[in-house]
């Protein structure tokens, strides 16, 4: 007999299949890279990973992970304050802080946890958090959690609309702590937050600015230090959260970079820190090696930028209308979710893996395939992908 739960979710799953919005997992038999071996499909060019710098398979990064495993074993088997903190975590946090330009940093099991920790720990019922309308799901859920637990006040400002933010901060002038939170690079659009304006508004209102740089760390700025470097404002953001699961080796993990006091407070109070194990030392070691690699090889960041420019220009030349921008996230808007998934399926049949995104990840009617470039894509990889886009685009009468 099926349980009430199974009775409810079974038909929902069937509906997803009927709607053409069911997500099928593709299994990889080789490391994440520009070209991978996909089970049952052979060699595929990946154009949808966050492996922006190609470090997930960089020999020095992989070697560091193995050495971390050999030196520290699989893990502490408990949380940091109970069972001890590996020295590799301290070294990683020092490197994170140095990279993004803050006095201190604290690592978490994921950037999701890091975002949850910031809002869920630092706010009280006297405070307000204001979030950009298009912020990542982890920020949205972190705020929902904070609202339920701390009873803090919450508001949303229109995407990138500084006048709206200004008005909402003015209306909230009596709140004790005012926190403004934004993605540095918006993951579905590839748009960059207007950091200089945000900093100006936050300073005027004495608000704390939090920037989630998950898609900007290793990507923006001449040396990959993120949104602040892009605008020449390193050291001017109060709190930066970011992931170790994208450009910085792609394994997993995240961090909060901020003042020593904020990091100390999170060490004392943040529930994802107090009640969840630290990153495995393997991951701490490979992430640290990724940061060191980035610091020694700024040319990877330049190569990423050049690949993004080339791919975007060529797509425009073919007649597609990618969202304009200067990041390696290049979304092509198709409308309905099923259309995005169909395009993604047809591209995969041509050997190109690009994921289609639909509602509720993006607004209704704005489904898209989101291309993401890597520094390690060769011109041949990109030209092969563009040829597939031309073929599928014509087949679907998009160009
Ligand atoms: C802007 C942003 N923040 C946070 C996250 C979560 O990162 P993690 O995989 O480390 O939890 C992501 C990942 O998709 C992201 O794009």
Name its key features.
single chain, 399 residues, alpha/beta, Aspartate Aminotransferase, domain 1, Aspartate Aminotransferase, domain 2, three-stranded mixed β-sheet, 15 helices, 13 strands, 45% helix, binds pyridoxal-5'-phosphate
Overview of this protein structure:
With about 400 residues, the protein is of the alpha/beta class. It has two domains: about 130 residues, Aspartate Aminotransferase, domain 1; about 240 residues, 3-Layer(aba) Sandwich (Aspartate Aminotransferase, domain 2), CATH 3.40.640.10. The protein is built from 15 helices and 13 strands. The strands form three sheets. It has a seven-stranded mixed sheet, sandwiched between helices. Strands 1-2-11 form a three-stranded mixed sheet. Strand 6, helix 8 and strand 7 form a beta-alpha-beta unit. The termini are far apart. Bound molecules: pyridoxal-5'-phosphate.
Written as H for each helix and E for each strand, in order along the chain, the element string is: HEEHHHEHEHEHEHEHEEHHHHEHEEEH
Q: What Rg do the Cα atoms give? A: 21 Å
Largest sheet composition: 7 strands, mixed
Percent range of helical residues = 40-55%
Integer count of domains: 2
Shape designation: globular
Task: Report the uncertain regions.
Answer: none
Percentage beta strand: 15-25%
Give the name of the CATH superfamily of the largest domain: Type I PLP-dependent aspartate aminotransferase-like (Major domain)
Distance between the first and last residues' Cα = 51 Å
Please work out how many helical segments DSSP would assign.
15
Mean pLDDT reading: 96
Strand order of the largest sheet: 3-9-8-7-6-4-5
| Classification by helices and strands | alpha/beta
CATH third-tier fold name of the largest domain: Aspartate Aminotransferase, domain 2
The CATH architecture of the largest domain:
3-Layer(aba) Sandwich
Please give the CATH class of the largest domain: Alpha Beta
